[in-house]
Amino acid sequence: MPIHCRREDLKPWACLAWLTLILAVGVGVAVPAPAQTVPPQIPRDGWKDCAYNDKPLACVDAQIPGGLKIRWKDGQSMTYREVSGKGKDANGSDLLRDRLGGLWRRELFVQGNITLTNEANGNRIFVPLRFPCKPPLKGDVGYCRY
Fold this sequence. Notes:
1 helix, mainly beta, single chain, nine-stranded antiparallel beta sheet, elongated
């Protein structure tokens, strides 16, 4: 069936649509390449890259009702409970007390990392949000994105 682009055969917009379709089929439509599959992200070893007083030390943290528990790779662990009477300090940070009685200021950063700072002795704990991945994806810094 011949297609005539005359006023009495097809409307102008229909003629343009048919012409576009014929050109696309005749010339060949560029098909986008299939999306590359992202390899699964597997935590390196189940430990986060934490730090105690700026010295790297692997740890795992767990949010518990009313506090936080940190287990260190060297076998130590500590539980930190929210201080109900003190609440938040002037900066909006939570105040936590460890089981030995030490008072810690918890800061939560935008990316999800936290620091605990003991104002009395200056000790500082850094806990990242994510586990390091094995292997990191090309261009990534090595942390899993989940």
